[in-house]
């Protein structure tokens, strides 16, 4: 499979990465090189094979239902580009 | 220009403390022949002289000296931890409380975590001293350190008779370069497809990627969650064993971290290989492999045989599919892991016409080319209509790759010997071709190990015709790093030298 | 459901009759102290970003660890819905960008949910009942909250809700009217509250419904559906369905067609409208979350949880009907809240079940409703109400006096027996005293006495006068008997 320019733009938008017109062509070439490289996987017989879901077979650890965190709003917003009263601020979202 | 001897063993006082191995420095500190402050200062001085290498993104001399003073007090009062006073470099992918953590990316340029990664916290618990944060490929995506947003690391190694700058490998290029250039006694690193072992091989250092789940991933910036593992890079096998002993261990905050007690890795170093069966996988004999690599591999096998191991030819039939499958799984996970860098809660923000515009501009300006490429590939292979053909298929192939190894181990193989890389280090800019796959091929021998979650160690085994280091890789059973240390030590002993680059930068 | 179409449920359009088809996705907040994957509090409200851990804020390198109680709550709910419990389920990432979604993905369950197919029996007001199929229940994270009205150019983001555990309960499109939809949500809410797995507080957003609505002419295949997002009261669910069905019917009768889309219900304007922001083609790129292993447990774990379940509404209702002789309707009213049912049982214990039901439903519930109180805050305890009923049974007070007594206990409290004693409310059973009163009335009203011989219905007037004269305390049976004898009525 290979991607066309329109797909490159669609993927970039899905990934929320702005691409300039100049970037689309080279990106298309690079993505297609990678897709051509992975194409060989199509030749492997995978019938009856389970996809790997956990690298090491073990039981998932769980937490107890105890409140152990919170009360550190200042830390939570400390690195934010824009805040007010410990809220994160973003450009207005229209619903 | 031959490599010089690392240490004048036995006479600690006559050598520069930077030239000690970690084990030697530890013993000297314990014997009070050296203070942590002296040792740390010596490293800070060396770092100041080595800025041309661009190995450290951030030097933390004040913190280092403070920690060293505390270490000296602890040593004096008999409360020393196992790594008390040992100065280390930390790959800038590990979050460090109050110390800028960038992941090599502009998008995290000014990020100051209010938490400490599990791995680095374990090191500080054991008394280690932080010298600074080490350069890396952006978000650990790269094999040459050229994708760092803060300039590439220059390898301390040069080709004989040339001053062309070489890459240190990647993504843990800063870690490998700093260790090779004696700018720390050891360094933390991470390995998603070969990012510990390939730079270790390129710089004549030892690097181990432990079994997936041996080290906690908590507080380490994620690249591909099912593949990422932390591990150490150091100048000797023993030093790696000591460091891994401190870095690893159970962590209730990481669901994928194994609840297994940490073995005495250092004790395993001297076990020898008598009675072990070492597999030599035929699929690693790839087309176009340089004769020098083949020769090194044969030599390594011969050393192990001479030391009492049994060699066995084995087959790992799905080997060649590991790299293409990796380039589906890793970007897919990365595309999702890196969605959090959106300019809302931390990191760079570039305004846009609306919220979507802000996201798009922030991520366009904050991520470098390689990272964007991988995010886009990952987004594509997960998108509607392609998920089964790409992602599910790649995960099935992962199962097949893992089964290959399981069959070999079930057949009595204790460890597998392969080359670590298909070539020695290359020049900076040499592989800036339009085809990203050329760079990806660097990881062809290491990536299978990540896909199967196994432990792998790279150990220096000699120099090529141009005087550049070459490494061998050993692959072990799950959670059997001890055997890897034992076998790697035999290679280190047999290779018979501890070559280090000439300090042209100092 | 291929049951014949009930004509009463059809909606009359301008040209045809239409059948409305409704399915629902209910998001129910799991009752737990901490969040699904972090140790931050789930408490409602709080200062901005105060109930937020570094995991909830998606700081680099933070990892989710599942809260075992949330798993148990999902299994309990599955059992309450008579559903398949999956011993192995998988958490997936649903990827999209939104400022209140810090990770850039929601951890949810896509292909392999923790709970599979089940069903809910729903009783309708007319005494009929329907069975609504449950397709699945899965665990997922709630998002944070964006405030849009604080500032003209910016939205404020608070992550206190981010990561709170939700159960998404997906029904089959088995509902055929707004009434059925409302009854279904009401019943589901009752079950969840019985189980203690969700408090069902719709005002606080603990229960939200996405309502899928389509219409068709009876017998035709399913029409295109629209999803009305986040309807947050049972009344609004009913309104939204009615309004949306009529909108679709108008379009179809006009020769148009329905666009499959997400819509928002605006209760003030009484309309649903397209949510354009959600209209961008979504591609969620689901894949298993590599930070989490599959969720696995054994049947013994499920069995242990099953043993700990309380009696559920359907079983309780059946028992109330058989053990207390109640009508299904009364039993249904009593079991709607677990606290009401418990109250009723305490009152009915060792007493006449029907009398107890009358008192609880008519007097107590009536009064509670009037005052806007819940059963939990009733001023009249089950023991007090029981004592009142006992006093009637023992003939100490009449039913009428009992109502006065209830009123006194409601406002002033106290032991009903003591109140009866101290206020002299005891029924007069002493026939001598009653006879004196009767004689006085007969003597004073000779004309009425004469008429009574011809017109026996005048007996009522004499009874009333006697009760008045005795302050309502005369035993009505005794009064009746005496008057009949003295007036010569039989
Ligand atoms: Mg959902
Ligand atoms: Zn802090």
TrEMBL record, chain A:
Keywords: ATP-binding, Ligase, Nucleotide-binding, Protein biosynthesis, Transferase. Gene3D superfamilies: Glu-tRNAGln amidotransferase C subunit, N-terminal domain (1.10.20.60). GO terms for molecular function: asparaginyl-tRNA synthase (glutamine-hydrolyzing) activity; ATP binding; glutaminyl-tRNA synthase (glutamine-hydrolyzing) activity; transferase activity. It catalyses: L-aspartyl-tRNA(Asn) + L-glutamine + ATP + H2O = L-asparaginyl-tRNA(Asn) + L-glutamate + ADP + phosphate + 2 H(+); L-glutamyl-tRNA(Gln) + L-glutamine + ATP + H2O = L-glutaminyl-tRNA(Gln) + L-glutamate + ADP + phosphate + H(+). Its EC number is 6.3.5.-. GO terms for biological process: glutaminyl-tRNAGln biosynthesis via transamidation; regulation of translational fidelity; translation. The keyword RNA-binding does not apply. SUPFAM superfamilies: Glu-tRNAGln amidotransferase C subunit. HAMAP family: GatC (MF_00122). Heterotrimer of A, B and C subunits. Belongs to the GatC family. This is Aspartyl/glutamyl-tRNA(Asn/Gln) amidotransferase subunit C. The gene is gatC.
Automatic annotation (TrEMBL), chain C:
It catalyses: L-glutamyl-tRNA(Gln) + L-glutamine + ATP + H2O = L-glutaminyl-tRNA(Gln) + L-glutamate + ADP + phosphate + H(+); L-aspartyl-tRNA(Asn) + L-glutamine + ATP + H2O = L-asparaginyl-tRNA(Asn) + L-glutamate + ADP + phosphate + 2 H(+). It comes from the Bacteria. Heterotrimer of A, B and C subunits. Keywords: ATP-binding, Ligase, Nucleotide-binding, Protein biosynthesis. Signal peptide: none annotated. SMART domains: GatB_Yqey (SM00845). HAMAP family: GatB. Residues 342-487 form the Asn/Gln amidotransferase domain. Belongs to the GatB/GatE family. GatB subfamily. Allows the formation of correctly charged Asn-tRNA(Asn) or Gln-tRNA(Gln) through the transamidation of misacylated Asp-tRNA(Asn) or Glu-tRNA(Gln) in organisms which lack either or both of asparaginyl-tRNA or glutaminyl-tRNA synthetases. The reaction takes place in the presence of glutamine and ATP through an activated phospho-Asp-tRNA(Asn) or phospho-Glu-tRNA(Gln). Pfam families: GatB_N, GatB_Yqey. It comes from Methylobacterium longum. This is Aspartyl/glutamyl-tRNA(Asn/Gln) amidotransferase subunit B. The keyword Magnesium does not apply.
């Amino acid at each position: 499979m290979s991607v066309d320019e329109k797909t490159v733009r669609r993927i970039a938008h899905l990934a929320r990465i702005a691409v300039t017109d100049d970037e689309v062509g080279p990106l298309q070439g690079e993505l297609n090189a990678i897709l051509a490289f992975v194409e060989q996987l199509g030749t492997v017989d995978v019938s009856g094979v389970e996809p790997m879901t956990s690298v090491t077979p073990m039981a998932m650890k769980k937490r107890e239902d105890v409140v152990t965190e919170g009360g550190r709003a200042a830390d939570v917003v400390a690195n934010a580009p824009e805040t007010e009263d410990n809220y994160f601020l973003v450009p207005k979202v229209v619903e | 220009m031959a490599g010089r001897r690392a240490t004048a063993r036995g006479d600690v006082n006559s050598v520069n403390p930077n030239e000690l191995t970690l084990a030697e420095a530890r013993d000297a500190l314990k014997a009070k022949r050296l203070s942590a402050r002296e040792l740390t200062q010596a490293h800070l001085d060396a770092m100041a002289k080595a800025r041309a290498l661009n190995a450290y993104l951030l030097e933390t001399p004040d913190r280092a000296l403070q920690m060293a003073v505390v270490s000296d007090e602890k040593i004096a009062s008999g409360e020393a931890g196992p790594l008390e006073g040992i100065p280390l470099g930390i790959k800038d992918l590990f979050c460090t409380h109050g110390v800028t953590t960038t992941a090599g990316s502009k998008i995290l340029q000014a990020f100051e975590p209010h938490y400490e990664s599990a791995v680095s916290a374990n090191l500080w618990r054991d008394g280690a001293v932080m010298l600074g944060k080490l350069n890396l490929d952006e978000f650990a995506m790269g094999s040459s350190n050229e994708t760092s947003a803060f300039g590439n690391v220059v390898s301390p190694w040069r080709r004989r008779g040339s001053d062309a700058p070489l890459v240190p490998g990647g993504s843990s290029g800063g870690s490998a370069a700093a260790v090779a250039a004696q700018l720390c006694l050891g360094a933390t690193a991470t390995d998603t497809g070969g990012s510990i072992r390939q730079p270790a091989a390129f710089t004549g250092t030892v690097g181990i990627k432990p079994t997936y789940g041996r080290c906690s991933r908590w507080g380490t910036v994620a690249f591909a969650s099912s593949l990422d593992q932390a591990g150490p890079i150091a100048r000797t096998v023993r030093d790696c064993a000591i460091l891994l002993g401190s870095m690893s261990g159970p962590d209730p905050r990481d669901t994928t971290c194994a609840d297994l007690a940490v073995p005495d890795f250092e004790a395993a170093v001297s076990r020898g290989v008598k009675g072990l069966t070492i597999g030599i996988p035929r699929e690693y004999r790839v087309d176009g492999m340089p004769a020098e690599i083949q020769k090194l591999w044969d030599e390594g096998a011969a050393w192990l045989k001479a030391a009492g191991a049994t060699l066995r030819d084995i087959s790992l039939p799905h080997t060649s599919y590991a790299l293409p499958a990796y380039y589906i799984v890793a970007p897919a996970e990365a595309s999702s892991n890196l969605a959090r860098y959106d300019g809302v809660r931390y990191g760079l923000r570039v305004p846009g016409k609306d919220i979507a515009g802000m996201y798009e501009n922030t991520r366009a300006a904050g991520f470098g080319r390689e990272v964007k490429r991988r995010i886009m590939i990952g987004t594509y292979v997960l998108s509607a209509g392609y998920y089964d053909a790409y992602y599910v298929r790649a995960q099935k192939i992962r199962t097949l790759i893992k089964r290959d190894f399981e069959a070999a181990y079930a057949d009595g193989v204790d460890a597998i010997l392969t080359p670590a890389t298909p070539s020695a280090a290359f020049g900076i800019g040499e592989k800036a071709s339009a085809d990203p796959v050329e760079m990806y091929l660097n990881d062809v021998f290491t990536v299978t190990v990540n896909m199967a979650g196994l432990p792998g160690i790279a150990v220096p085994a000699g120099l090529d015709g141009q005087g550049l280091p070459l490494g061998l890789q050993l692959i072990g059973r799950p959670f059997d790093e001890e055997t890897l240390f034992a076998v790697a030590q035999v290679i280190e002993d047999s290779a018979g030298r501890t070559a280090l680059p000439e300090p042209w930068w100092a | 459901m291929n049951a014949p179409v009930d004509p009463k449920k059809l909606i009359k359009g301008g040209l045809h009759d239409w059948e409305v088809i409704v399915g629902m996705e209910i998001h129910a907040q799991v009752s737990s102290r901490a969040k699904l994957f972090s140790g931050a509090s789930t408490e409602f409200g709080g200062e901005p970003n105060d109930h937020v851990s570094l995991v909830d804020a998606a700081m680099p390198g933070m990892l989710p660890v599942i809260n075992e109680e949330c798993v148990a709550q999902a299994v309990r709910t599955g059992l309450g819905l008579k559903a398949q419990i999956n011993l192995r389920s998988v958490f997936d990432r649903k990827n999209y960008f939104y400022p209140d979604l810090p990770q850039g993905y929601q951890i949810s369950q896509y292909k392999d949910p923790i709970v599979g197919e089940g069903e809910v029996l729903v009783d309708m007001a007319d005494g009929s009942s329907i069975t609504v199929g449950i397709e699945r229940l899965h665990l997922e994270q709630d998002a944070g909250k964006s405030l849009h009205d604080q500032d003209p150019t910016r939205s404020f983001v608070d992550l206190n809700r981010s990561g709170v555990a939700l159960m998404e309960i997906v029904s089959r499109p088995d509902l055929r009217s707004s009434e059925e939809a409302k009854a279904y949500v009401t019943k589901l809410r009752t079950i969840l509250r019985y189980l203690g797995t969700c408090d069902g507080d719709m005002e606080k957003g603990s229960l939200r419904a996405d309502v899928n609505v389509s219409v068709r002419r009876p017998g035709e295949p399913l029409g295109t559906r629209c999803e009305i997002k986040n309807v947050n009261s049972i009344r609004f669910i009913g309104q939204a369905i009615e309004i949306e069905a009529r909108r679709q019917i108008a379009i179809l009768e006009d020769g148009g067609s329905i666009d499959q889309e997400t819509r928002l219900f605006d209760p003030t304007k009484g309309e649903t409208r397209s949510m354009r922001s959600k209209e961008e083609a979504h591609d969620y790129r689901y894949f298993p979350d590599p930070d989490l292993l599959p969720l696995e447990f054994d049947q013994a774990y499920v069995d242990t949880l099953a043993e700990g379940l309380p009696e559920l509404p359907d079983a309780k209702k059946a028992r109330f009907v058989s053990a207390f002789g109640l009508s299904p309707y009364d039993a249904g009213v009593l079991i709607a809240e677990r606290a009401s049912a418990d109250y009723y049982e305490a009152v009915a214990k060792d007493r006449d079940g029907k009398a107890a039901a009358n008192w609880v439903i008519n007097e107590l519930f009536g009064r509670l409703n009037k005052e806007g109180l819940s059963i939990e805050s009733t001023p009249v305890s089950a023991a007090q109400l029981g004592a009142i009923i006992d006093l009637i049974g023992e003939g100490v007070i009449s039913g009428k006096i009992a109502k006065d007594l209830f009123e006194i206990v409601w406002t002033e409290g106290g032991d009903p027996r003591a109140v009866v004693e101290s206020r002299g409310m005891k029924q007069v059973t002493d026939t001598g005293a009653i006879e004196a009163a009767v004689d006085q009335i007969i003597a004073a009203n000779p004309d009425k006495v004469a008429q009574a011989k011809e017109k026996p219905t005048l007996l009522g007037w004499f009874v009333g006068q006697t009760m008045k004269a005795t302050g309502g305390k005369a035993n009505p049976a005794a009064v009746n008997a005496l008057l009949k004898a003295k007036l010569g009525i039989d």
